[in-house]
Amino acid sequence: MILTPSMTGIASPDPLQHAFKVKSAPHAGRSGSRPVFLESQQWQQWWQLPSQATERALYIHIPFCRKRCTFCNFFENGTNPERISRYIKNLTEQLHIAADTPLAQSRPFNTVYVGGGTPTDISSDEVKLLGEAISRFPLVDNAEVTLEGRLNGFDDDKWHNATANGFNRFSFGVQSFDTQVRQAAGRFDDKDFLLNRLQQLSQHPSASIVIDLIFGLPGQTLDVWQQDLQAVIDSGVHGVDLYQLIGLSGTRIEHAREKGKILGTPISDFQADSQTRANMYASGSNHFEAQNWQRLSSCHWRRDSRERSVYNSLAKSGIEILPFGAGAGGSIHGHGCMNGRDLKKWYQAHDERTTNNSTTMPAAPIQVPGMLMSPNPSAKIDAIFKRGLDSGALDLKLLTKKMTTHLTPLFIEWQKNGLASLGEHKLTLTLAGRFWNVNMQTGLFDYLAKNPIFTQDDPYKQPPPAIAS
After folding, report:
1. How many CA atoms lie within 13 A of 313 on its CB side?
2. What are the CA-CA distances from residue 60 to residues 91, 112, 338 (Å)?
3. pTM recorded for the entire structure
4. What share of the chain is helix, strand, coil (3-state, %, to 5)?
5. Using CA atoms, how far apart are residues 252 and 73, in angstroms rounded to an integer?
6. Where are the beta strands (DSSP E) in 247-332?
7. Beta strands 393-395; 208-215: pairing state
8. Under a CB-based contact definition with an 8 Å cutoff, are residues 297 and 197 in contact?
């Protein structure tokens, strides 16, 4: 049996700070998939086949931002009204086509997420067009429909058009309320504006208002972080995500660090190390739970039941997600797919289709440039692991006895190292385990790779989809 510290963590007096060296990635995963090529005719056929999924989502990508934040390494396109108008026109046309296909109409969608980029940078009329296009898809009763973005520029006209056209959840990237930390991070607006605007929007009788905070930003001391946490309570929002700043390549923060500099505030060059970020996570968790907020995952808390976080929860379960837009990712008929981010190529695919089929009503949305992967044979079991560890409790009853026995040596090491508590039917993560849960997921997948268990009759194997490939 192969066990390594990267799988198990290490024994220490303080596992919250020292079980692992650092969190180096936002997500964990593995894949037995391979790239596949789909002919245009096969792509058309896919959209004529009914879905076999029991839970589904739409993901719609708006790849524009007015400003690049210092912590961001996925900035794509600068906001330009004319460019956005063209994009939304093409995007909504494809949504209309897709909504009428047998694939889309065969089963209802549980949730819709409009992400980016900064979706709230589109105009009020474009918010309405997008909401109308989404409404053409079959949705479950009270489906969660999220619009992501920032508060700056999200005026009352956009707000009213959004709520009047199906959007019932709004996720705003606040990152920090502290005005100086925000300025150093490249964010718009000051603390007073954020608090006032969030308090206004949170008064809506049914819409859920959610914000993101990042802990570990340059200049964000423990005292500043504590003020950020209290500001969440004061803002009246219904949910919050706490994300750790990760040193990803390509960000302005990392470029400065490579030059021996720190992007801090005018009065502080403080940069939280991994141990300080661990304490920030703990103080955030304790702060919200002391206010009787419910933890829905390792990084998400809610004030009350109106906030459900459906998309984020289901996305970790390997559900079918139909992706639309340049840079959108998802899965169709068990095949993972990622649309290319190159906007020119995305437009080119639309222009060629319009030229070649000017009088013919398309039977499927355009096949845009991107990557398509074969079905992951371990998708079912991976979803159990990822959703369980992300929530903080892995239900062992969802695993076969053979799998539980096989994983027990790893679970025992996690327990020894203060990351989890192993019961008869459940593995429960400690506070430290929740902080390090992505490392633990990565370690679990590595453990299974180095200590294989799968056989031909494995009940977790994903059956191949009955479609042309």
Report:
1. 15
2. 9, 8, 12
3. 0.93
4. 40, 20, 40
5. 8
6. 294-295, 300-302, 320-324, 329-332
7. unpaired
8. no
Candidates 121, 126, 63; CA nearest to 92 is 126
Q: How many other C-beta atoms lie within 10 A of the C-beta of residue 206?
A: 9
Over the range 286-317, which residues count as b (16 or more CB within 10 Å of their CB) and which as e? ebbeeeebeebbbbbbbbeebbbbbbbbbbbb
CB neighbour class for 321 (10 Å; exposed up to 12, middle 13-18, buried from 19): buried
pLDDT at 353 over 90: no
In the numeric block, which tokens belong to residue 390?
A: 């992300």
Question: Residues 130-172: pLDDT tens digits?
Answer: 999 999 999 999 999 999 999 999 999 999 999 999 999 999 9
pLDDT at 80: 82
Residue with tokens 């607006």: 189
Dump pLDDT digits (tens) for 8-40. 999 999 999 999 999 867 788 787 789 999 999
Q: What is the mean pLDDT of residues 228-236?
A: 98
CA–CA separation, 404 and 406 (whole Å): 5
